[in-house]
Amino acid sequence: MDNDLMVIDLFNTDYGAYRLLRTRVEKVDKRKGFKNYLICPDGIWSDKMKKMGIKVINVNLSNSMKLSDIKYEIKELVKVFKEYKPDIVHTHASKPGATGRIAAKKADVPLIIHQVHGFHFTQYKGIKRKIYEFVEKYLSKYCDILLFQNMDEYNYCKDNGYEKNSVLRYIGNGIPFEEFKDYIKKDKKFNFDKKRIACTARWEGVKNHAMLFDSIKILKEKYSFTNFELNLYGEGVLELDLKKKANSMDINDVINFIGTLDREDIISEIYDSDLSVLTSFKEGKPRALMESSALGVPIVATDVIGTNEVVKNNRNGYLVKLGDSENFAKRIYELLNDSNKWKEFSDNAKLIAKDEFDENKTIENIISVYLNG
Asked: Which CATH number fits domain 178-356: 3.40.50.2000, 3.30.360.20, 1.10.357.20, 3.10.180.10?
């Protein structure tokens, strides 16, 4: 008789699953006493994971908020859960976190866990924020445990009565250092030639590319700085809108829409970059910036929940007030033109990453939750 503890993780894009969950799911699955499956849509990244031996189950999930699509996804997930009979369902992010939790409850899954990757309501104000806050708190009734990557959101839920509905656990977040071993020991040097700026983020509204584009325009016009390129890594519904915006702002000559890349390629691209930037409205605990830090790439990012636990202001990068495009541009310009400050931040970044961003520590925290609640 198979007594392994079966876990099913759930994400609504195959690239997101590949990028954020692949190594953790693989490591848990190799643990004695565990089986770890991963639900995500079909696609090239799903196929890659299957070839790696990861137990992938394809379900047509999306970001659609149409009631018909939500009902369809819940129905399909209930079928999967009843067929596989998992001991634990572990959902991620807002939309799949909602449909996944409801489906798991309907299928009588013994332990339902939801991992917060940055609350959706953080980017809103007024009545819209209140509605999303209500929905998040209501959905906490549909899981046994809520997991948090950053302390701000953990404390928010503690202060706002979420513990009445579910157990709250802080687990942190990290990166698989084994994937960076060829780069970590290298002494990264300041680049005196054309600069490369990297932004690894989904092409969606929450990532706030509009602020980044404003800063790029300021770099060109106010600082007469054009000896650089901004490389955008990701995918998303705003791709065409962002390309049109870059054209209309006359900054398309310094922006490259690279798209999604395999792990080896994206790690190489980030390492070859001189600066990593992120202008998000909110984050869980941004893996892209942890990766940049491990590779010795200094950072300029918005001072928001999640990001401010990765970027140590004036140590491995600069934190800038959300919406302050002028100061964001200034910080980019300063770092790319000050070899001493850049080198100081680069060396600090690697030390901070080694100390704080090890995925294996997060996995141990998750395993403890699986076994002990």
From this structure: 3.40.50.2000
In whole angstroms, give the CA distance from residue 114 to residue 126. 26
Place of tokens 């693989």: 26
Task: Give the tens place of pLDDT for each residue, 99-147.
Answer: 999 999 999 999 999 999 988 777 778 998 899 899 999 999 999 999 9
Residue 230 main-chain phi, psi, to 5 deg: -105, 115
This prediction's pTM: 0.91
- The strand pairing partners of 35, in sequence order, are 6
- CATH code for 5-174+358-372? 3.40.50.2000
Q: Do 178-356 and 5-174+358-372 have the same topology in CATH?
A: yes
Instruction: Give the closest residue to 136 by CA, choosing from 104, 171, 95, 105.
Output: 95
pLDDT in tens, 275-312: 999 999 999 999 999 999 999 999 999 999 999 999 99
Both tokens of residue 348? 């600090």
